[in-house]
UniProtKB/TrEMBL annotation:
This is Secreted protein. The lineage of its organism: Bacteria, Pseudomonadati, Planctomycetota, Planctomycetia, Pirellulales. Residues 229-253 are annotated as: Disordered. It comes from the Bacteria.
Length: 280
């Protein structure tokens, strides 16, 4: 009995180990074998099918169905087209050149999730030529969209001429580069340009500086004005009478105050008379 249990445990352990080794082997992909290099074989396949700088307009497309071939109008299929390619002024020495690709959507519907690839070519194109692929999330019907792509810095050093490092000679641009969309004209998805013929546009960054206007006053026009202070010295003979009560002037004087003032005046006159008599 114990021997049977031990046999089952060993078989289960061996099975788990084998499955683990198999799962580890499935995690290996091409990037582990060739490195993290971006390949442009899909662009080479498109060039083999349609060439470059070509166009093919077809009025309709025949589609096989259980009821026979059905013609699909061109307006129902739609088409993406490369309108213009411009190179932005190279400002960062740590990055490769940046290109602005203008894409036109000639359809009545929006297109989502297609890819745009740019390849730098020196001599003949090869799968390892410096390239970059970006994904466009959405372009509306009838819209012209500008997509920015930046090539690897290796595009600036692809050859050697008499000891001088030279960059790419031609640029290949492919929209819908993985051929995922059905279009009325697949040939206009590929364009090739000489590097010297691509117009270079400068990216200007405008900085707005707001200055506050401060009004200044000339020091010569400022006069120091001393406040005029009137000092009133009360008369020794006249008593001070409160003329303001509760913020209003009294129209009639107080009788008691008048009597006190008269008595003080009489006392003052008597004192003056005595002083004058003693002086004689």
């Amino acid at each position: 009995m114990n021997r049977q249990i031990l046999t089952k445990v060993l078989m289960t352990t061996s099975f788990v180990v084998c499955m683990t080794m198999q799962s580890d082997a499935q995690q290996i992909n091409a990037s582990h074998l060739f490195g993290n290099h971006s390949y442009c074989s899909h662009v080479i396949d498109l060039i083999s099918q349609h060439g470059v700088n070509n166009t093919f307009n077809r009025g309709s497309t025949f589609h096989a169905s259980p009821f026979g071939h059905v013609a699909i109008p061109d307006c129902e299929i739609g088409d993406l087209q490369i309108v213009e390619v411009r190179q932005q002024e190279h400002v960062d020495s740590a990055c490769g050149p940046t290109f602005a690709i203008v894409i036109q959507n000639h359809s009545t519907r929006s297109v989502c999730g297609f890819h745009v690839t740019a390849v730098a070519v020196f001599g003949h194109i090869c799968p390892t030529s410096p390239n970059v692929t970006v994904k466009v999330d959405k372009i509306e019907a009838g819209e012209a969209l500008e997509v920015l792509v930046t090539l690897p810095i290796e595009a600036l050093a692809m050859g050697n001429r008499n000891g001088q490092v030279i960059g790419f000679q031609r640029l290949v641009v492919a929209i819908d580069s993985f051929d995922e969309l059905m279009e009325s004209d697949e040939a206009n998805n590929l364009k090739a340009f000489n590097a010297a013929s691509i117009p270079v546009v400068s990216v200007s960054v405008s900085t707005t500086v707001e200055t506050e206007s401060v009004s200044t006053i000339d020091s010569g026009s400022v006069q120091n004005v001393q406040p005029s202070v009137e000092t009133q010295v009360p008369s020794p003979d006249a008593p001070q009478v409160d003329s303001v009560q509760n913020g209003t002037f009294d129209s009639e004087p107080d009788v008691d105050s008048l009597r006190s003032a008269i008595k003080m005046l009489d006392t003052t006159n008597a004192t003056n008379d005595v002083a004058a008599a003693s002086g004689i």
